[in-house]
Every structure is written in C-alpha cells, then in structure tokens.
From TrEMBL:
It comes from Flavimaricola marinus. Keywords: Hydrolase, Metal-binding, Protease. Pfam families: M20_dimer, Peptidase_M20. GO terms for molecular function: metal ion binding; peptidase activity; succinyl-diaminopimelate desuccinylase activity. It is an enzyme of class 3 (hydrolase). NCBIfam families: PRK09104.1 (NF006579). Residues 201-359 form the Peptidase M20 dimerisation domain. InterPro entries: Cyt/Met_Dipeptidase, Peptidase_M20, Peptidase_M20_dimer. This is Succinyl-diaminopimelate desuccinylase. The keyword Protease applies. Its EC number is 3.5.1.18.
Length: 461
C-alpha cells in the first residue's frame, strides 16, 4: 500500500536524485581504504563526512575513536520500533590500478548497455548502498520534518579488513546500540528485477603462511637441486588442500556443516537461478567446486578454501634465475553452519606443519575470523519488508543466501541479541573488490525508494 505520507517521500526522492548523486560522489572521493595504514587519515575523513551529513538530517551523531578506524553513531527519534541501521564506509584497495579505466576515486556516472551506473571504488561496497538508507531518511525528514520511527545509525570503517575493533565496541556500547532489529545494507539483489532479503551469510577465516627455506635468495644454477625451494613447498601445500572431488582436506573441516534442508533446497530451486549465465558473465563455462553440488549451493551453503594471493621469488619484468628464501600465500576459508573458525585455524596449521620437508619452517599470520550466520526470519519485520520491497521492484522479493561475509551480522546476534535484516541492492556484475567497481543508478534510486517504503511499513504496524 502506498500511503499519502509515503508517496510524498517517494516523490521527494525522485526529484532530489541529482543532488543525492552529488553527495554520494563526495563520499566516494574519500580514499577510505581500511586495510592500508597509509589511508588512515582518509578513513577518518570519511567518518567526519558521515557525522556532518547525519547531523544535517537531524541525527545526534558522533565519531567514536577505536584502536583502529573510527565508528560513527547517530540517533534520531524517540518512539516507535527502534531500528539500528549498519553500513561500512571503508573500501577495498584499488590495485591493480592499471586495470581501472578511470581514477577509482573520481566517480563518474556512465551510460552502459544495461543503464546508467556510477563507477568508482566503494560505489557498490558499501558507500552507494549505505547512502540509499541515509537518503531515504533525508527525504523523510525534508517532507515530514521528523523521522517516522526511532533510528540509530551505525557506520563502521574496518569491515573490509576483518572488523578488529568491532567486538569490543559492541560490548562497550551495547546499551546505546540496543534496538528492536538491525538493518544492514551490504548485500545484493537476487537479479536485476528481483529484490532479496539475505537470510544466511558465510563466515570467514583468513590465514597467511610464510614458508622459509635457505637463509637468503640463491642463484638457482649454483644451488638448484640440493637446495629446498620454498615456492615448490608452498605449491605442494596448496595442492594438498583439496581432493579430486573439490572437497577441502583440512582434518575436521566439515564438522558442523549441515546438509541443506529439503525445504530450503526446494525454495532455492524455485528461484530459477541461471547458473550458466552467472558463470558465462565472468568468462567461465563449468562449475569448479565440490562435485555433485549446484552452483547456488556452492555459493550459499557450502564451505570453501581459496588462495587469495601468492608471492615469492622474482615477479618483476624479464627473468631472474633465483631460488627464493621464502614464499607466501594468503588463504581464506568461507564457513557455513556451525563450523568453528578457531578449530579450523589450528587444524590447518597442523596440516601445513606436517607437510613441511626438512630445512623448511613456516610462520602463520592469522587474519580475521567470523562464524557463519543464519537470520531468524520469524520476526514479523521480515514479512513486512518483503512486501514493501515487492511493491518497488518488478518482481516479488526473495529470501536468499549470500556467499560473502559480513561479520557484524553474527555479532549483532551474539553480543546484542539482535536479529539482522540484510537488504541490499548490489548486482553480480558490480565488480566489488575488483577494478572498475560500479553501482547501478537503478539500484541507487530504487534502493532509496525501497528504504522509504520499508521505513513507512515498519513504522506503521
Ligand atoms: N559486502 C560484502 C559482503 C557480501 C558480498 C555479502 C556479496 C553478500 C554478497 C562485504 O563488504 C565484504 O566484502 N566482506 C568481506 C569480509 C571481510 C572480513 C574481508 C568478504 O566477504 O570477503
Ligand atoms: Zn561490503
């Protein structure tokens, strides 16, 4: 139902779109790459930008320092359902920079065969997305002079680097952040026409390994043969992580991995996911995961082990006959069900140690870890939001799984006892974490309108 109070807000959103794009561009120009200490000042500036912007909409907002990058918390309204909205203002590194068609921090609106997009780092993950909610609030406030319900905004600047400050921050501020339900805008649509509420997310475990052999780099002619080569050892370790059916071989890895329920399998099959098209869009033709599993199951319901980076020896132009003294790899595991990240970390380390030949040592550097999370969809807010989304988009909203990880969804539940509703408007071809990231203008525009509808519906019942 489109109430009068809502249609005025939707109209305002439509008329204000050009200004909303300019505000988004402003935020996108800030190079808030959280993982690289060289950009700490930019992360701080992005937090300041958000504080100012939220204050301009009437949120009582402050920047909260942490040992890492600051959080931003803002409050508005004092009655009605209390909604806690979360987004992250940090972005992924831009390299390889030479693969970008334009400066990643000079966002531009472009025409593409599939419609207008805004291109730049952070457009889809997550600045464009978080601004859909901010803009919906701005429009509501402009039209009605107040917001429709009690709202707390919570923005993080470390999501892309494992959220190291998050757990202590949530614990220390649990009373202030307590709400009826959390809303997270950091996920995608099911397809270009079908909005989605993501009900399960995979967890993540990051491990970096450094395999060391000889004391120094050596001439590969003088020493090749007798001297152990750490790159070969690393290759053997990496090759041993999967068997021929695509299963991960780390002992105990599948403990806590549930089989998909018949109900969920049927629900996902009914979505009519185009697995071939999904792969074809990135130049692939056959699924390379666990044998006997559908592509959707592989992404949404199965755990994985992937090598995200590997270095060692001479990687510059030309050729150098070197036998390196060390080799490194960054390896991540996506987790599902009740897989325990800590146990898997230990088991993985044990396995690597056991594969080392004489004269080799290994150093481990643990990166973030978070378990998988499944949302309890029994809160009536889920059905209310599903209906509101279905009014805005060509097709009705679907409940879906998500392959990525958003650590806070699990912590909202375990620390604050809060269920999260994950609603986002990203698309598979947004190139998040890659060169030429973009966000569709249709997503930005309908995203704002979707939130206005959801705010209306959640504050009316
Ligand atoms: N927005 C993504 C998560 C995401 C992507 C959810 C696609 C659903 C579909 C998020 O910002 C992200 O990329 N998270 C990282 C986690 C992190 C700890 C580095 C991820 O999933 O790799
Ligand atoms: Zn994100």
């Amino acid at each position: 139902m489109t109430t009068d109070r809502l249609s005025a807000v939707l109209e305002h959103i439509d008329n204000d779109l050009p200004a909303a794009i300019e505000r988004l561009k402003d935020l996108l120009r800030i190079k808030s790459i959280s993982t690289d200490p060289a950009f700490a000042g930019d992360c701080d500036s992005a937090a300041d930008w958000l504080v100012k912007d939220l204050q301009s909409i009437g949120f009582e907002t402050s920047k909260r320092d942490t040992p890492g990058h600051p959080m931003v918390v803002g409050h508005a309204g004092d009655s009605g359902r209390h909604l806690l909205f979360y987004g992250h203002y940090d972005v992924q590194p831009v390299d390889p920079l030479n693969l970008w068609d334009n400066d990643p921090f000079d966002p531009q609106v472009e025409d593409t065969p599939k419609g207008k997009v805004i291109r730049g780092r952070g457009t889809a993950d997550d600045k464009g997305q978080l601004m859909t909610f901010v803009e919906a609030c701005r429009a509501w406030k402009a039209v009605h002079g107040t917001l429709p319900t009690r709202l707390t905004m919570f923005f993080e600047g470390e999501e892309e680097s494992g959220s190291p400050s998050l757990i202590p921050f949530l614990k220390e501020n649990s009373e202030e952040l307590d709400a009826d339900i959390a809303l997270i805008c950091d996920t995608g649509l099911f397809d270009d026409e079908t909005p989605a509420i993501t009900t399960m997310l995979r967890g993540l475990l990051g491990e970096e390994i450094v395999i060391k052999g000889p004391d120094m780099d050596l001439h590969s002619g003088m020493y090749g043969g007798p001297a152990i080569n750490p790159i070969r050892v690393l290759a053997r370790v990496i090759a041993a992580l999967h068997d021929d059916t695509g299963r991960v071989t780390v002992p105990g890895f599948y403990d806590g991995v549930p089989e998909l329920s018949d109900e969920l399998r049927a629900q996902w099959e009914a979505l009519g996911f185009d697995a071939e098209g999904f792969l074809a869009d990135v130049g692939l033709s056959e699924p390379a995961g666990e044998a006997g599993r559908s592509v959707l199951e592989m992404i949404w319901a199965r755990p994985t082990c992937e090598v995200n980076g590997i270095t060692g020896g001479y990687t510059g132009d030309g050729f150098k006959t070197v036998l390196p003294s060390e080799a490194r790899a960054k390896i991540s595991f996506r987790l599902v069900g009740s897989q325990d990240p800590h146990k898997i970390r230990e088991s993985f380390r044990e396995m690597v140690r056991a594969l080392l030949p004489g004269d080799c040592t290994v150093e481990f550097h643990g990166h973030g870890s978070s378990p998988a999370s499944v949302m309890a969809t029994s809160d009536p807010a889920f059905e209310i939001a599903r209906q509101a989304l279905s009014l805005e988009w060509p097709r009705p909203a679907a409940f879906v799984g998500g392959g990525g990880s958003i650590p806070i969804a699990g912590y909202f539940k375990s620390i604050l006892g809060l269920d999260s509703m994950l609603i986002g408007f990203g698309r598979d071809d947004d190139l998040i974490h890659s060169p030429n990231e973009k966000y569709s203008m249709d997503s930005f525009h309908r995203g704002m309108r979707s939130w206005a509808r959801i705010l209306d519906a959640l504050s009316a019942d």
